[in-house]
């Protein structure tokens, strides 16, 4: 019986790690229901996986510690495509400046931009910048700075200084996690600093997140609800999963 229990334990934890690697982030309650164990058991499993460096625990759930950009771009691919489809209607027709963060969701938008002549786009994402440069009508700018090993974005004083040379009609941002009470959060304070600056320099802030991030938390609080004008997900705006956010922000 002890051997069988050990095998089940190891199999469950491996399945947990694999699931988080493919999904990116999941909530403890959802994991407990999926594996038909208690939330306390899932917490112990996540602690063990975190000790091995395979996952990172966040408030209410966990995220995979190993998510290269390409893996993040393919995760929830259909959701990202639907979000990008919605976002295209929000891209100005041209003659103004917008900014995009380094998220994989906005990289999808960058690769499918509507035809907008003389549109300037500033980003802290290398992959997003490369996607933008494929459109000859877009004036793409990369902030420069130090690469964040977790998010893949460019951070630090060089990135901040570059951003401060611009003003934006609209900021397109994403988040590691979204809490219905206080707003968005990220895995590092440095990432928060860049996103807050993008929001501060913009007339209108759009938050683009897939629904798996709703109701989750990460280490560093970033944007409060009063700093966000519109939240875009792949869900229909009438979906009841969005009910906790209706009093805080406009939904699309």
From TrEMBL:
Key word Thylakoid present: no
Source species, domain of life: Bacteria
Record-linked PROSITE patterns: HTH_DEOR_1, HTH_DEOR_2
Entry keywords, A to Z: DNA-binding, Transcription, Transcription regulation
TM annotation in the entry: none
Residues covered by the HTH deoR-type domain: 9-64
Annotated GO MF terms: DNA binding; DNA-binding transcription factor activity
Pfam families cross-referenced by the UniProt entry: DeoRC, HTH_DeoR
Keyword Transcription regulation: yes
Name this protein carries in UniProt: DeoR family transcriptional regulator
Organism: Nonomuraea glycinis
